[in-house]
Amino acid sequence: MKKIYADLHLRPNLKDPEQVACMIRKASELGYSLIAMSLPSNFPEEKIHQLRNICNEAKVDFASRVDLKSQTSKGLINSLRKLRRRFEIISVMCESKHVARQAAKDRRVDLLNFPSPSFRRRFFDKAEAELASNSLASFEIDIEPLLILEGPTRIRLLSSLRREVVTAQAFQIPIVISSGASNELLMRKPRELAALASLFDLDKASAVEAVSRNPLANIERNREKLDPNFVAPGIRIVRRGKDC
Amino acid sequence: MDAVWNAVSKLYGEYGASRSGLKLIGYDAEKGLAVIRTLHTTVEMVRAALASITKIQDKPAAIHVLTISGTIRALNEKIKQ
Q: Which CATH number fits domain B2-76: 2.60.40.10, 3.30.450.40, 3.10.450.50, 3.30.70.3250?
């Protein structure tokens, strides 16, 4: 059976519609069936609809995503309360330890992302992983920094990622590999992303799952929850009426 | 091919590059297609190195693997498809 691939983190300049369309077409050419773009939290619904239409034309499924960059855990909780039902994917950019810990234990968070290449500002350790293992969050790795960085910075980032992947696997936290691409030249095929994951010792089978099964499971779960007929996991409204 | 050699040796060092058996078999500048030979044991390594290329001669660029095959004849047939 043909594998379905997803890239959950495209970061085009949303003010440049040509670049957005170009990246969507490129994702389709590269073999992705589903993409998600980082959208601002106040992004209007009609524009999301427009993006969905462009994706439909390119035969790619589109998922809305928001990246939360709160400074405090209270701020994060407030943002989650406001935005959870508006976006299919919620990712938290963990730039401080408090926010990282709050994100790891909150069941409304889908992806934990650690954008800083510096090991001092990456908080995915055993404590974080233990919290995340009790929630639904996946550990997201963006490949773009690996392509852009050079020399000792990239070496240190690879070293951090290697350690974090071991921790994630030990606590059975799903790993999601995304391109994190800000332009079409930084987009890669799913198998290429998986090959790049070998640089931080992720085995081939897990790497392929990280660009296919794991991101798709996230989307499927959230779409089910956002469905108006959803009541609770395993419980759905199948019919409405007076005789029910 | 310099960009490919540089990428392989940057990521895997000269020792890793020497194990890859890299060789340029053909290059079509018009179509932007190249055929590169490598050992089957180092395919993933070369795939990662090619994916890591972001510039060729200081100009932004990206290289994608179209297909992989054991023989050049089968490769040409796959590309024609």
A: 3.30.70.3250
Helical spans, DSSP H, in A58-203: 73-83, 97-105, 126-133, 144-148, 151-170, 190-197
Q: How far apart are CA B81 and CA A180, in angstroms?
A: 31
What ipTM, to 2 d.p.?
Answer: 0.88
Residue-wise pLDDT for A117-152, tens only, equals 888 888 888 999 999 898 889 999 999 999 999 889
Test the A interface: residue of B11, B42, B59 with most A CBs within 10 Å? B11
Domain hosting residue A14, numbered range? 6-236
Nearest CB to B47; choose among A146, A148, A192:
A192
> Domain-by-domain residue ranges, chain B?
2-76
Q: Is A165 domain-assigned?
A: yes
Contacts with B54 from chain A: Cβ below 8 Å = 147-148, 185-186
Counted domains in chain A: 1
All residues at 6 or more sequence positions from A171 whose CB lies less than 8 Å from its CB, including other chains: A126, A129, A130, A132, A133
**What is the average pLDDT across A188-198?**
94
- B61 CB neighbours in chain A (<8 A) are 185
